[in-house]
Design brief:
Shape: globular
Number of strands: 38
Strand content: 15-25%
Number of helices: 27
Strand order of the largest sheet: 26-25-24-23-29-28-27-30
Radius of gyration: 39 Å
Largest sheet: 8 strands, mixed
């Protein structure tokens, strides 16, 4: 219980709400009870929904087993163990301060060896003291087990107190959800909808299309694993809060049972007829539900039935307005089905069209009955439950017992239809919110046709296509064809079908307009800002003109002879000039060299001083005369070499010290670490960059405190990372790597030793580096020792990953509770979207995450914030190349363009899809561009850049189209003699898209006259073959050769005419 705490403010707020509901409706839904008793027994692994457990979750956020609570008018008495009493102590103190109204909470602690009989008697005595005629309200339908429950039930039975059932009161209390509860319901509904759309639909399509024999029960198990791991359906939710509300249901093949508790059968999924899938999910114990019917080869009758059922569900959702009786939804369903000529479906409907949901999957007191059902009359009476804002309903319409006489497959003749969604009742005139709307249910989105085999093997037909974007008309036409046999559905038959590439291009066009407007607004806003930093020379962080070696002549050392001397303490070099030693501060010296004579009898020491227009003293004293260099000749060669070395060492150490001082001066002051009451610790971690210093490196521990992390080693080395300084927190579990990583990318750099860094990483190696000592012989893959080593490595990797996962989970909970304003969340890279590339010196594996593009395994690290990216240009993209480059242009045009080279061409489509999904505009080009002059021209004239199309000058396709039009117009231009014509042809060829063919084209011109007059001899043919091989060799160049060519590629200008010129030179 050490890591568990309750939300005291929420507890007080909800306890006060409980008393308000109880006192205002005591004689109504609370059945006249003036004392309430809620008992929870021993914990159970079974999936069950009990009112008492729901009340615990609602009040505390947790279910407290072996606990009895007694509510009187003024007190809440809690009988529980010592650990749970300690957990509730903050709530006791808050109620004592009056934060929950007049109610006070008191604890009765049960010792471990005690059965609790005496304490149960104290609870019943308190009930008698509180009321003259106590009426004890209980939840008799909740069946708990455990020793304390047995003792309590026996004590109540022998007490003689009047008992009533308060199930309706608790249900009424929990019916309307507050903002936090609504958020949990939405998260559960999002999980259900994404699991349906991103896993169920592709999985069912794959099973049907491939003809696999996959059992319904197996699909249910696989789907349950996906729901409990939301990352598999691209949902960013905490996995520990995700669970199923009931086992996922898959039904097909003519056998349907639409009850929630109906298990999925062991029969294989049928590839014809109707497939009904229902998913129930929970997030933080709040439930959501979704159900969809997927129809293969729909008939006309099925089309009409499904559309009518869908319209009836929409009518039921619209009828759930605040103040309406619960019968309104069922009446709306019946009326809508009759109006659409489907009154035959009414008797086949389930007894209700939905029910309330929340902490319980089915709130029995808030059922939406059909007219004529047993509960319809009671629901419509005065005082019966009515719809209120904040209620959550599962609106579910299901019909069983339908038949399709036209189906050729016997198992497809009997079918059922079911549609269910999670609905949140909204106050006012706004329509109710459908929380599961991200899983489409329109007819054209849930129907399929089967492709007929060309040789007529109809029974072996496979799933061809979801009717992408087609309306009901297409479905009707398909149904007509399906009635007479299989329908061959082609994407080319659908004028509304759009491929992924077309959809991507449309979105990129939208991004272009938006990006140009953003660029113009940002650059014009920055136009009046400060320019780049002025260049500096000499010492870093201090002005050279203000440095001084000695404040007076008396501080200079006494020299015995006129020799070049180095005073390290004063940071000065003493040089003899006209019989006097003149001091020069080391920061004024640029370089020192020594040259020995040919005979080696003398040495020349040459001292060069800093000089130039950018030199800071020259800018401060423009009329002064500066010394450029001095030369000294010495017969003591050893002394000359020693002096030169001392000057270099002093200059290097002072420059390094000034650099560190300047870096520290630019650091943003960090807040002091505040030690938290609860400190989460992760031991045995290494850090990168490592602490400086000699000696053996040792691992340390990472602690999470109230406002920051602290990493410390047994040697006393300490590093603090404040939460407010963390820009991105990344967790990368070990999968294909040997380390598990926690990485922090910072807003402002910090000092690690004497180096400034914006990236700090903590990691643990999951596999030990070992060396085989068996003589290097080949080992069998089934060798027991080898298998044991592999198993041990897997266990170690899983153990370390789990430890990191728990640490990340606890820190995330602390951030959400104590630092919500920071919006910090752990980001996990998506390995399936990764690609290889060279961002620095070596090939690494880049992986996108939600907010970044990262590489965390090798140093230097790469953490690229997606929000900082302006555009991405994919360079050297061509069919004959094995890889391409990525140029990332940042919104800050003064920042260097980041290049990721040598990306395999097979990753191109995946990268383009990822960039489009992230809303990042990208372009493709055939050559590398020089970005510095381009960005310089854009900064110089941002308005002209946007007026001439903005980033559109990088569009390779549009540029090619314009060039083709220009070539077509020049084709009929009048020409002079034949030589001029040849020259124009040569110019046209020089502008060809493929620069690698230029040499071949020139050679063709050279031999063009001979080709017209006579045939070619063997020498000429061999020359042509060599030229062709030379052209083809371009695609086989090594990465180093291509990078060399890339550096020699011509640059391009920026905005306006420069941008157009860049596009032309690129081609």
């Amino acid at each position: 219980m050490a890591d568990v705490s309750i939300d005291v403010q929420q507890f007080c707020r909800r306890l006060k709400r409980l008393y308000d509901c109880w006192t205002s409706q005591q004689d109504g839904v609370w059945s006249g009870a003036n004392v309430l008793a809620v008992a929870v027994g021993a914990p159970s692994e079974d999936l069950r929904y009990l009112k008492s457990s729901s009340l615990h979750l609602w009040l505390f956020g947790y279910e407290l087993p072996e606990t009895v609570m007694l509510f009187t008018r003024a007190r809440v008495l809690v009988l529980t163990s010592q650990k749970k009493a300690s957990l509730l102590q903050p709530a006791v103190e808050a109620c004592a301060r009056g934060e929950a109204g007049s109610a006070r909470v008191e604890m009765l602690v049960k010792p471990k060896a005690d059965d609790g009989a005496g304490l149960c008697g104290q609870l019943l005595d308190a009930a008698r003291e509180a009321e003259a005629h106590p009426v004890l309200g209980q939840l008799p339908k909740d069946k708990h087990t455990g020793k304390l429950i047995e003792v309590w039930n026996a004590a109540v039975a022998n007490s003689g107190l009047q008992q009533v059932d308060v199930n309706g009161g608790v249900a009424d209390l929990l019916a309307c959800k507050d903002a936090n509860e609504i958020l949990n319901v939405k998260k559960a509904a999002l999980l259900a909808a994404k699991a349906m759309q991103n896993w169920v639909v592709p999985k069912v399509e794959d099973v049907v299309d491939s003809g696999k024999k996959t059992k319904h029960s197996k699909l249910s198990e696989m789907c349950e694993e996906v729901i409990t791991d939301p990352t598999k359906v691209q949902v960013k939710l905490k996995a520990e809060n995700c669970d199923i509300a009931y086992p996922p249901s898959f039904q097909s093949g003519g056998l349907y049972d639409l009850r929630v508790n109906a298990p999925s059968s062991d029969a294989p999924l049928h590839d014809d007829g109707v497939i009904v899938v229902s998913l129930g999910t929970r997030y933080s114990s709040y439930c959501a539900n979704i159900s969809r019917s997927y129809i293969i080869n729909p008939s006309k009758e099925q089309t009409a039935q499904y559309n009518a059922l869908l319209a009836a569900q929409e009518a039921a959702i619209a009828a759930l307005r605040p103040g309406a009786p619960l019968t309104a939804a069922g009446e709306a369903v019946v009326n809508k089905l009759k109006s659409m000529g489907q009154e035959a479906l009414v008797p086949l409907l389930s007894r209700n069209v939905g029910f309330g949901m929340g902490l319980e999957f089915r709130e029995g007191t808030h059922v939406l009955p059909l007219p004529g059902s047993g509960k319809a009359a009671a629901a419509g009476e005065d005082g019966a439950p009515r719809v209120r804002p904040g209620m959550v309903f599962n609106v579910c319409l299901g019909v069983v017992g339908l038949s399709n006489s036209e189906a050729k497959d016997p198992k497809a003749r009997n079918y059922a239809l079911q549609i269910a969604d999670t609905i949140i009742v909204v106050d006012g005139d706004r329509p109710n919110e459908v929380a599961t709307t991200s899983a489409p249910k329109n007819f054209d989105k849930v129907t399929y046709t089967i492709q007929e085999d060309e040789e007529g093997a109809g029974a072996d037909g496979r799933l061809e296509d979801v009717t992408n974007g087609a309306g009901p008309n297409r479905g009707s036409a398909g149904a007509g064809a399906a009635a007479g046999g299989f329908k061959k559905a082609l994407r080319s038959d659908d004028p509304t079908f759009k491929s992924a590439e077309q959809l991507r291009k449309e979105k990129q066009e939208e991004l272009l307009k938006k990006k140009n407007e953003e660029t113009l607004q940002r650059l014009t806003a920055q136009a009046g800002g400060a320019g780049g930093a002025a260049g500096t020379s000499g010492a870093v962080g201090r002005k050279i003109s203000e440095t001084q070696a000695y404040r007076s002549v008396t501080e200079m050392p006494i020299a015995r002879d006129l020799r070049v001397q180095v005073d390290s303490k004063a940071e000065a070099v003493l040089l003899p000039i006209y019989g006097v030693l003149v001091p020069f501060h080391i920061t004024t010296i640029r370089n020192v060299t020594t040259t020995n004579d040919a005979g080696g009898d003398a040495a020349l020491v040459r001292v060069t001083f800093n000089l130039g227009p950018s030199y800071e003293p020259n800018q401060r004293f423009p009329n002064a005369i500066f010394l450029k260099e001095l030369s000294f000749k010495s017969t003591d060669v050893k002394h000359a070499n020693k002096v030169a070395l001392d000057i270099k060492l002093l200059r290097s150490s002072i420059a390094q010290r000034d650099k560190e001082r300047a870096e520290r001066a630019t650091l943003v002051a960090q807040e002091k670490l505040v030690r938290g009451k609860k400190v989460f610790k992760l031991p045995d971690l290494w850090m990168r960059p490592a602490f400086p210093g000699k000696g053996r490196k040792v691992p340390g521990s990472l602690e999470a405190h109230a406002n920051g992390f602290r990493y410390q080693t047994p040697k006393g080395e300490v590093l603090d990372v404040m939460y407010r300084n963390i820009k991105h927190a990344l967790f990368q579990p070990a999968e294909n790597e040997m380390i598990t990583i926690l990485h922090m990318h910072l807003h402002n750099p910090i000092m690690v030793g004497n180096k400034k860094t914006k990236d700090v990483q903590f990691y643990t190696e999951v596999m030990d580096v070992v060396q085989t000592l068996d003589g290097g012989g080949r080992r069998n893959m089934y060798d027991p020792d080898e298998l044991e080593d592999e198993q041990r490595e897997r266990e170690r990797r899983n153990k370390i990953n789990n430890e990191f996962q728990q640490f990340v989970k606890r820190v995330q909970e602390m951030w959400s509770k104590d630092c919500p304003d920071l919006s910090l969340e752990w980001d996990i890279p998506f390995r399936e979207l990764g690609f290889s590339g060279v961002p620095h010196r070596s090939t690494v594996f880049m992986m996108p995450s939600v907010n970044c593009l990262v590489e965390l395994t090798e140093m230097p690290f790469s953490v690229i914030t997606l929000a900082d990216i302006e555009i991405v240009n994919l360079e050297r993209v061509g069919f004959n190349l094995k890889n391409f480059d990525m140029a990332i242009v940042f919104k800050d045009f003064t920042r260097d363009v980041l290049r990721i080279d040598a990306i395999p061409s097979k990753s191109l489509e995946g990268i383009k899809g990822w960039l489009t999904d992230m809303g990042i505009k990208y372009y493709e080009s055939k050559l590398n561009l020089q970005w510095k002059p381009i960005l310089k021209n854009i900064l110089a004239d941002p308005v002209g850049f946007v007026e001439q199309g903005g980033w559109d000058f990088l569009d390779m396709e549009k540029s090619d189209d314009e060039e083709e039009e220009a070539e077509a117009s020049e084709e009929y231009a009048p020409s002079g003699d034949g030589d001029d014509d040849d020259e124009s042809e040569s110019d046209d060829e020089d502008d060809s898209d493929d620069a690698s063919l230029e040499e071949e084209e020139d050679d063709d011109e050279e031999y063009g006259d001979e080709d017209e007059s006579e045939g070619k001899d063997w020498d000429e043919l061999e020359e042509e073959a060599r030229n062709a091989d030379k052209a083809r060799s371009y695609s086989d160049d090594s990465d180093d050769e291509r990078r060399g060519k890339k550096r020699k590629a011509p640059g391009a200008g920026g905005g306006g005419a420069g941008a157009a010129a860049a596009a032309k030179r690129r081609r």
